[in-house]
Amino acid sequence: MKNYFFLYILIFASYLSATHTINFHRYLWANYNHFSGNIPQAKDWYNKLFSANPSIYTYKGYLNLLADSNQLTNFKIILELMPMLEKKFSNDPDVQLIFVKAFEKTNQLKKADHLIIQLSHSFKTHSEITFRAAQTYTRRQEPENALL
Question: For the chain, N or C: smaller number of CB within 10 Å?
Fold first, then answer.
């Protein structure tokens, strides 16, 4: 199965232009290093990727990398990127939850609570958002809203 996957990647990459091929290669290696636990190497690959003006969608992997490292400086980077990315990823609950986590880790709890409540109206069936909204309402001593 792995052989077919890599064959597919090679065939797909051959159809892309040289710039896209390089960006695709960098994105693959950044993700490979991220998921194999080599965070510093993954950051290096993302830095190379961002120097070539990649697609906005590469930021989703980068945000996950920053959030997975669980360091305060990385959450500050997420919040710096948020104005540029929040509109593009407004329909992506996973990215929105990364923004909530960044607010929480930087002690901006009111902003985190506001965002999670806002998300609970948009993503009514997303279990983590629903659970976190109920927690927020409970912390605010609003049991009626928590039950909703």
Answer: N
Q: Pick from 103, 56, 57, 47: which is nearest to 78 by CA?
A: 103
To the nearest 10 degrees (0 to 180), the angle between helices 127-139 and 93-105 is 30
Q: What are the angstrom distances between the C-alpha of 115 and each of 3, 36, 37?
A: 43, 31, 30
Neighbours of 6 (CB within 10 A): 11
Q: Locate 125 and state its tokens.
A: 């069936």
Closest by CA to 88, choosing from 112, 125, 63, 117, is 63
Rounded distance, CA 117 to CA 131, Å?
Answer: 11
Per-residue pLDDT of 62-120, as tens digits, reads 999 999 988 889 999 999 999 999 899 999 999 999 999 999 999 999 999 999 999 99
pTM of the model: 0.80
Q: How far apart are CA 42 and CA 29, in angstroms?
A: 7
Whole-Å CA distances, 146 to 69, 93, 137: 31, 20, 5
Q: In 36-126, where does DSSP find H-type helix? A: 39-50, 58-69, 72-85, 93-105, 109-122
